[in-house]
């Protein structure tokens, strides 16, 4: 398949992920992809959401875009969905029997196919670093992990040996046969200065697989992702508040419904191309309210404007009712994040006159690490911020479980 790359993206938040809308087709002819404004997008929607309650203040794009129910009623599930669900059901039942907390980690970006016989598609730059790294630390913390990731994106353990930054083959040596056994096959060994790191990774990998606490499954398109997320959320409902949802995938904001797709490859000979796309439904609200009541849900907010980060994180919490938004700036995300959550108030609120913007209802906890510690040996930085993110979430999740009504 020939990918159409987004210039930028974010991690899952507000039900989906923030992403740039400019892309270029590969090949000899450049096509500026035009996504119409909100009014035009609303006119292009083929399926409307449910009627708004009287007095609800919603934009035209929200009122005309796909609802979650309309989306699942009109877009077909991936062919492997039932098989994936059966495997997850068995995994969750085993972890519940053994008394483990279970976290669903979503990771990597989603594609948006432009044709039914897919040649071209929209994509984003997410490699799945945060999700894969965090999954390792959740496993170390004793959680069972369902790792739902973009096909071919980074995975726990093998992420340390990226083909571009720390190629696996570069630290393998071929040892020739000894003079006493010249006909023996050469042996493969690990470069001495790489053995310690590899041994640590391999030991943890073998431990996790012996325990059976990691289950992986893949998605490619935004359709795959949404269908899997709904199905897995429903399966995790059986563990109630012991379930955590760490929604780190970079999910497309817009998609092309199958009813609008060209059957065959879009031809380049016709010159410029404009495609009208629909908004991906916001799925955090149904996840929280219907699919898995009681689960501890974390979404992510990526911004390039510092002035938007906290307001948009608070807005997401108000709108969807989940527990934590982890906000990060595009250029500082590897060494600085902020946890935004609603204040837990067992008694009356402390301020008789709340702030006009509602900010006194929220708490912000900034987490930072020394940036110099993130640039050490390729594949093995001295410090990864995900270690502290996971430690903070494990603590908060334990408090959440302890407050079970």
UniProtKB/TrEMBL annotation:
It holds the Pfam family DFP. Belongs to the PPC synthetase family. This is DNA/pantothenate metabolism flavoprotein C-terminal domain-containing protein. GO terms for biological process: coenzyme A biosynthetic process. Residues 240-333 form the DNA/pantothenate metabolism flavoprotein C-terminal domain. InterPro entries: CoaB-like_sf, DNA/pantothenate-metab_flavo_C. GO terms for molecular function: catalytic activity.
